[in-house]
Amino acid sequence: MNRPASMLFAIVSIFMPVISVATDADSGKAFIEKATIFLYSRSDSIVLISSFADASLRSGTKNDSASAHFIKGMMHKVRGERSLTKDQYHAAFRLASELKNERLRNEIMIQQAILEREERNYKAAGRLIQDALVYFQTQGDSLNLYRSYFEYGQLLYDEGRSSAALHHYISAQKYIPVRLKAFAEAEVNKSIGMTYLKLAGLFDQIKPEKAAIYFKESARYLSMALPYYEASGHPFGICYCKLYLTESYMKSGEVDKSKELFNQCNSCKEYPDNEIQIRYIQLQAKIFEEEGKTKMAVAHLQQINALKFRLLSPMVFHEAYQQLGMLLYKVNEKTNGYNILLETAAWFEQKGIWLKAYEATSWLAMNYEQDQKIDLALLASKKAGHFKNLVVNEADMEIFDALRYQYKTDSLEAKLEKAEEASELQRKQIVFLVVTTILAGILMLLALVFVMMKRKKEILSKQLALETAATLRKEAEVRQLLIDQLKTAQELAQQKAATSKLEAEKNEQELLLNALRKTEVMNLQKEMLSKLSPFATKLSKKNDRDVFESLLNDYRHAAESDPMAQFEMVFKQAYGSFFSKLTEIAPDLTRSEIQIAVMLRLNLTSKEIAHILRLTTATIERTRHQIRQKLKLDPNQQLNAYLMAIG
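RE: above sequence
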């Protein structure tokens, strides 16, 4: 082993007494084991290990270089540098392949699978982990068997197969090496607790009694993991355990217990992990809501609108965003609440997270109905029913997985017991040759049956894959057709509403215009009457005077009605609240001042108003000044704009 690598192991041993100095010939294997354990269990290890990994790359053997690339890849991953992580893993994999170092190749494959899982490439991740798992099973490598089973559990958890994830977490526990026992037990127990909490949330909608059991199991496993993290000062593990324990207690009705535990989580809101920060905000908002402080809950939840949460933790972000939508509705911001719920429902539907999609759409249906939006309530109710069926199917699949893995475990134990009995019997047999012949025949028969079963399984798997693909295609087509129909219906409704609004506005404007025209005509008639009246006495012939008086009487009769009455009636229909608000602000306004204020509200100029009322522009300007004084406007305030803002 070269000197830099030896220095690394010596310094690591100072910080981690459990790691002994490597003396075996396989320096690459020792390098990885020591560095990864140190990296996983200490938060201050990155800089220390990085310097020695660089030194190993400069002066180490080819095998140590492969190991150093691998370690540097993991360090880049801790920093969030995914592109550099992939480059280092690729370099390590290439060197390991050249050296035919199968152990290192498969360790790299596990880390590559983690990257694929985090990018939601579940099939690719599954293939990598399965291949690694098969290899480590043949080698009896307990450390990497633990890692393989654990990471397979993480993959299944992210895929939504919680029962399958539990089986793999429990399998991982069997292979935990002694030197990693405390840390690994805590990690596995935390993961099992979070998985039980996820299952509880699913069955809470289907079988509450089963959900209650899962809530208790979740709390039990998280409580087992928490002491290790507290003893080792591991903030990440402490926050996850406490926050998810708080959620478990809260959902199982242990409110006081949940509040007491949540009060210990203050430091978590500053921890640089998006999921932890969002969970903290969610739980704080739920506690505020239970205490009747709904507006405080809304204000708290609005912190999640930071762009990083939507981009870096989309799943937990949309869960919290859905919670925000429901709370906005409660504080009477209904439009925002509906819009957020529609957005989150669509996101969960796209991602196939049926439970959350069902919660959002069923809530929408209930509140649409409450708000008398019957058409929208029916649409949301239909979608909620569809999602409920998918949730039930998901729950049934979890039950099936649980039974299948239980049967597999029981079957393996039974076979092991039978094999032990057979072995004991073989030792007691006198005729070794007869026993050997019988066993050989049995093995041949089993091999034949195995080959036949394998072929049958392959045929059935292919048929099932074809049928599943066809079903998925049909479902996708139907779903797309429904989406297109809904979009078309929504667009038609929006166009119809816009057209109706425009027509209503047009009718109102025409009515106001006609009323103004009539007012102008009537005022003109009054003006003409006042100008023509003196000429009646100047006519010499009585017959002409009578005809002229008759004509004047007709004008007087037409002018007796109030020229502004009809206009005011039409204006009140269009802007009913304007009069009441104006008189409330300035009760000492005269009727003529109110009439001019109404015309200013319609954005008419002083000249136009003077023409309609048959007054001088100076009179209108003087009245405008009087209105401004009674409304107590500042010199820099526009009268027209102020009146338009009233209503």
